[in-house]
Every structure is written in structure tokens, then in C-alpha cells.
Automatic annotation (TrEMBL):
Listed CDD domains: SPFH_like_u1
Domain SPFH per the UniProt entry, residue ranges: 27-231
Pfam families: Band_7_1 (PF13421)
Family annotation (InterPro entries): Band_7/SPFH_dom_sf, SPFH_YdjI
Coiled-coil region: none
Protein name per its UniProtKB record: Membrane protease subunit (Stomatin/prohibitin family)
Organism: Siminovitchia thermophila
Keywords of this entry: Hydrolase, Protease
Example of a GO MF term: peptidase activity
GO annotation, biological process: proteolysis
Length: 325
């Protein structure tokens, strides 16, 4: 009798486990007396009878179905195994971990903007996270008709609506089209809320959505970079001078020595001219340490410019009568 009892014994476990598998259904087999249930870390086991949940088991371990599982089933807890009779149920194994998925737009999204009549072509990429959170909805919407479900199935569903959501949240409230990265967090938060509403009825929830970068066409990116560099320097003339200096230092400004020499001379003359202007301005602003202030605001020289005699503080030279102010 022991021989016959053991030959009918089987093991109920997730036989086709994959890291990217959300659930897998053990079905179309009869559970015999002496069968065992194995639940591994990160798995939940749901016993189903005619599509209805009989019991949910979340603790990992190796269980005797007759003594440790059946007593906790809703309508089958009084089931008695016979020699030739077994219990026909389905067991749905669910991966309880949080899944992380990389995403990226396949084609540029043309965001309406006044600066470009045809719209701003933008690409984006990032990641999103999701997990199963409602077993009843999962069974009603997906597991009832599928034996397994992969992360790729969720990704396809998300990507199919992501372009519209990106356009919606980028265009909302007049975002700066040339600096979308500054608003990446706000845009991602809005998209996460919308995506969560899309898959919530399937028993899953979006736990995170992140935008790593926005990418513009090369021509627009070059324009953004050039505008930013001009803004940092501020003065276009200074920008040109700095560019010329960089060209000389890197050897890009050449021409048998003549072009580089001319450029260097022009830069030197320009810098010298600015230095002279600054010196003259400083001299005009500094007080005269040797002269004497007058009522009219003029300054007396120490010696007469006509005869060379030392002045005595008057407005006219006491020797030759030359006007001093």
C-alpha cells in the first residue's frame, strides 16, 4: 500500500520560474494524497477552484498539502483523499518582487512649441518600477485566461501609451522646451500617476517612474549649447576674443606664423587699450595729492607753466601774471 500511495504523490511548485515572469499557473493536474507544496522566497501561492480563490499562502517553505494546506482552504477544507481520488485545483504562483524596466521612445515626439511651427522633436529615456498589488484583479483580468505573464507584456502595454503621456506632461503649463531636464521630476511624477491608473485594474501598480534624459536633434542641441555658452560669457566681443585666444593656444589659428602673430598683436593691442582706459579712469577719479582745491572745483599747479616760478596759491602767477586755473 505504501508503494501505491507514493507513486501518486507529486510536488506542486513553480516549475518554469524566470526572473522576468510575473506569475505562472500550475494546472491541469490532480493533486494526490501525500503531495507537497513548495514556496520559494519572493513567491506567493494561490489555490484556485473554478476560478475562485480558495487560499493564499505567502510564507516560503515546504508544506504537506493534506495536513497543512487543505485545512485552510475556503470550500475544500473538508476534502478527503481516497486511494484513487485526488483533488483537482489550480495553483497560481506570483512573483512578489518589484520589477524595474528600462524604457525609451522609439521615435521623436513632436512637442508643439511657438518657436518651431512643426513642433520640437524630442526623445526621452528612463526607467519605471511596478509590482503586483491586487490578486483578485490580477486573476479576473489576466490570470483567468493566461497561464503565465512576463515583464515584457507590461512593458509593451506601457510603451504603447507613453508617447501620449510625455506629450501631455511636457506641454502642460508651458514648460521650457529648451530645458526640459529642469522639469524632469515634475513631468515624471505626472506620468507615473497616469500610468498607475492604466494598469491598476489589472492588479498591478506603478511604484516609480524616472526620466534619465531628454534628447534633442543635433542641430537644436548645438544651438542650445551655443546659446548657453554665450550667456555664460555675456559679452559677444569678449567671447570672440576668448575664442581667438583658445585658437592660438591650441594651434588652430595658423598661417605660416603670420596669421597667429597678427591675431596675437591685435589681442595685445586690444588688451593694452583697455588697460590705458582703465588707468586714465583711475587717475581722473583719484584726488590730486599735490594740488590745492579751488572754489570752482579746479586744481592749482605747484609751478607756473609759463615762467616756472613756484606758485603762491592764487589763481594767477605772481611773477608773470599767467592764469593758473
Amino acid at each position: 500500500m505504501v508503494f501505491f500511495k507514493n507513486q501518486f504523490a507529486n510536488v506542486v511548485e513553480w516549475e518554469e520560474f524566470r526572473d522576468d515572469m510575473i506569475f505562472w499557473k500550475w494546472s491541469n493536474r490532480e493533486i494526490k494524497k501525500g503531495s507537497r507544496l513548495i514556496i520559494r522566497p519572493g513567491q506567493d501561492a494561490i489555490f484556485l477552484n473554478n476560478g475562485k480563490i480558495e487560499g493564499i499562502f505567502q510564507e516560503e517553505g515546504d508544506y504537506n498539502i493534506e495536513s497543512q494546506i487543505i485545512p485552510f482552504l475556503s470550500t475544500l477544507k473538508g476534502f478527503k483523499f481516497g486511494f484513487n481520488s485526488g483533488m483537482r485545483v489550480e495553483v497560481l504562483f506570483v512573483n512578489t518582487k518589484e520589477f524595474t524596466v528600462k524604457w525609451g521612445t522609439k521615435n521623436p515626439i513632436n512637442i508643439p512649441t511657438p518657436q518651431l511651427p512643426g513642433g520640437m522633436p524630442v526623445r526621452a529615456n528612463g526607467t519605471f518600477q511596478f509590482k503586483v498589488n491586487d490578486y483578485i484583479a490580477l486573476i479576473d483580468k489576466i490570470a483567468g485566461v493566461k497561464n503565465s505573464y512576463l515583464v515584457e507584456d507590461v512593458k509593451i502595454r506601457i510603451i504603447s501609451i507613453l508617447d501620449q503621456l510625455l506629450m501631455k506632461w511636457i506641454s502642460k503649463e508651458g514648460k521650457d522646451m529648451f530645458n526640459l531636464q529642469a522639469n524632469a521630476f515634475e513631468i515624471a511624477r505626472g506620468i507615473q500617476e497616469d500610468l498607475d491608473m492604466q494598469i491598476l485594474d489589472s492588479g498591478m501598480t506603478i511604484t516609480g517612474f524616472h526620466i534619465m534624459s531628454f534628447n534633442y536633434p543635433k542641430e537644436i542641441q548645438d544651438m542650445i549649447t551655443k546659446t548657453a555658452s554665450h550667456g555664460m560669457i555675456g559679452d559677444l566681443q569678449t567671447y570672440q576674443q576668448v575664442s581667438m585666444t583658445d585658437g592660438i593656444a591650441s594651434g588652430k589659428v595658423q598661417g605660416g606664423g603670420t596669421a597667429a602673430d597678427m591675431a596675437g598683436m591685435m589681442m595685445g593691442m586690444s588688451m593694452a587699450d583697455k588697460m590705458m582706459k582703465n588707468m586714465n579712469q583711475d587717475q581722473q577719479e583719484a584726488p590730486n595729492q599735490t594740488g590745492q582745491p579751488q572754489a570752482g572745483g579746479g586744481k592749482l599747479p605747484n609751478f607756473c607753466p609759463n615762467c616756472g616760478e613756484k606758485t603762491s596759491g592764487g589763481n594767477f602767477c605772481s611773477s608773470c601774471g599767467q592764469k593758473l586755473v
